[in-house]
Amino acid sequence: MPNNSESYRALALQVTCHAVNQASDGHEARSLMLNSINRLAPQIAASIAFIGFDCRLIVLPEYFLTGFPMGDTLAGWAQKACIEMAGAEYEALGKIAQKHKIFLAGNAYEVDPNFPGLYFQTCFILDPSGSIILRYRRLNSLFAPTPHDVWDKYLDCYGLEGVFPVAKTEIGNLAALASEEILYPEVARCLAMRGAEIFVHSTSEVYNKNLTPKDAAKISRAVENLAYVVSANTAGIANIAIPIASADGGSKIIDYRGIVIAETAAGESMAAFAEIDLAALRRDRRRPGLNNLLSRQRFELYAESYRQSHFYPPNTMLDQEVDRKHFLQTQQATIERLAKLGII
């Protein structure tokens, strides 16, 4: 698709997550999710009216539909809080994207018929027609299944391009990073290898006026890859045992030079909006010189070290039922093995 919109505005919309943990069943949880979408609709409309109708990209926080599992089994959370790949929630969000002619990005827990009994934390992007144009499953998680846990079958189903998807759109080449994955440079790099220019980052994290590891990583990912980072944080998580403001504030947009060009404090806010200047980004990516780090990458230097190294193992959830203890047990076994090898 040709890239016609070389300058437009993006918004990291900071909204409160209304968790569904206390819902009695999946039916009640889905009703709560649709309530959240109904709350979003006027907020998005009003934000666009304030920012301007050249606001083409809106990113929503992590957990904005459900919150995260606390004490739920894998099967229980899948039944209660995970949406279907063509579910009513995507349809409702698609109508918002269609009405306002925007690209709408977010994050949800999702079931996949190819992997019964499991779920994935999924980043998605809807285009102005309301269609899903990108579906990225979080690859690094401590307490949730990932494609790496069923690696061989996942590759058979979706291929490597499905693991690292990039949507080439009229507003640039879009890719998604989920929450703490901003701390994993390899994920962003694999997306940049496929042309990603703008990382949409749905997160729910502690906000601090001091530089946090995640905020440092957001700047690093932008600089390393000459890419924008549009990072939307929650404005707190309601209806859950933790204090509501534990993950509240600091949504921001970082440009391809690593400069924070928009940021908001705590509370529900549309203040984190800024111009995305694709033309400038592309000029810098094509300009020879010291700062063009992307073009200076020598991947062959590192490929063999990655091939020879085995840290957290793949396929640990393939063809077997596990509970949440599995994740920490696998991590502990990994630590012990690496310690015996003298690596850590």
From TrEMBL:
Against Gene3D superfamilies, the record matches this protein to: Carbon-nitrogen hydrolase
| Keyword vocabulary terms for this entry | Hydrolase
Q: Is Hydrolase one of the keywords?
A: yes
User: Highest lineage ranks of the organism?
Assistant: Bacteria, Bacillati, Cyanobacteriota, Cyanophyceae, Nostocales
Organism of this sequence? Nostoc linckia z7
User: Domain CN hydrolase, which positions?
Assistant: 13-278
Protein's name according to its UniProt entry: Nitrilase
Q: Which domain of life is it from?
A: Bacteria
Does the entry feature the keyword Hydrolase, yes or no?
yes
